[in-house]
């Protein structure tokens, strides 16, 4: 009982990962930066604000689906422990816990790169559920899944928030295959994913009227400036969100209307962004039941159940 944390990534490790990703991403054509670096304190606060925007339906849809379907999902899965990947915000796990019926959930294993956030939400959680054992893993779910503690009973691995949409097809397969290997008989995987829908709704969700998403997008340059002593001018970049039909995703870019020079001091690197050039910061892939089932199947998983409001979906998978 209580709180325990295994730390597999610290500030120095995160700095090195950022340095490598930025060096690679800004040399490539097109230039790109990985979306995981949006989330410093300011970026996380902006994302929280996004989740409350009228245009951004995803979080509300997922919460509503969990409120309706979590009981049934847990009744079938009967988990004794829940592993949550990218466990930054506590709302999703709380909804799962509230829906527990029958077998009690004894252990919660949140995985996130932000150890501070994990500790804060664990503390709040333990105040309400002192019987719970919280075993946090401070790490990157794309790199540190081999460091998960061994299971203490039947497991549900939750990957919610449509985070799976940030990964490209190869990244999704890599992760799902790794998750499949972690699933024993009777274990379940719960994935929240956004669905393909009309273009206007998709583009509005990623380009809101108040410009919060634009600020969120530009924040990645503030992170690079601070962490790597760079001197990008975030305000000089325009937020672009567009639907890529061939790849079934909304892409976010930062577009330069004027040529800009910046230096990234910690990398000893000069970066020229030409007029009209873009830095690709995020892809948000959208699924259908058919594409989701195919994705799971290719990774050796079967679709146990599918819960949707037509906008968003919760998929429950198991190892085949
Ligand atoms: C946190 C990855 C699910 O893809 O919708 C929100 C991030 N980006 N607005 C998403 C995001 C712009 C979000 N995810």
Bound molecules: N,N,N-trimethyl-histidine
Q: Which regions are unreliable across 5 or more consecutive residues at pLDDT < 50?
A: none
Q: Tell me the series of helices and strands, N- to C-terminal.
A: EHEHHEHEHEEHEHHEEEEEHEE
Helix/strand-derived category reads alpha/beta
Please give the share of residues in helix. Answer: 25-40%
Count all strands and give the number: 14
Q: What is the 3D form?
A: globular
Mean pLDDT: 96
What is the count of DSSP helices, taking H or I runs of 4+ residues?
9
Report on the architecture of this protein.
The chain contains nine helices and 14 strands. A hairpin with a 4-residue loop joins strand 8 and strand 9 (249-256). It has an eight-stranded mixed sheet, with helices on both faces. A four-stranded mixed sheet has the order 2-12-9-8. The chain has a two-stranded antiparallel ribbon with strand order 10-11. The chain is α/β, with parallel strands linked by helices and 320 residues long. It starts with a strand and ends with a strand. Helices cover 37% and strands 27% of the residues. The longest helix has 20 residues, at 58-77. The structure holds N,N,N-trimethyl-histidine. Residues 50, 58, 161-163, 165-166, 206, 213, 216, 282, 284 line the site of N,N,N-trimethyl-histidine. N,N,N-trimethyl-histidine (AVJ) binds next to helix 8 and strand 12.
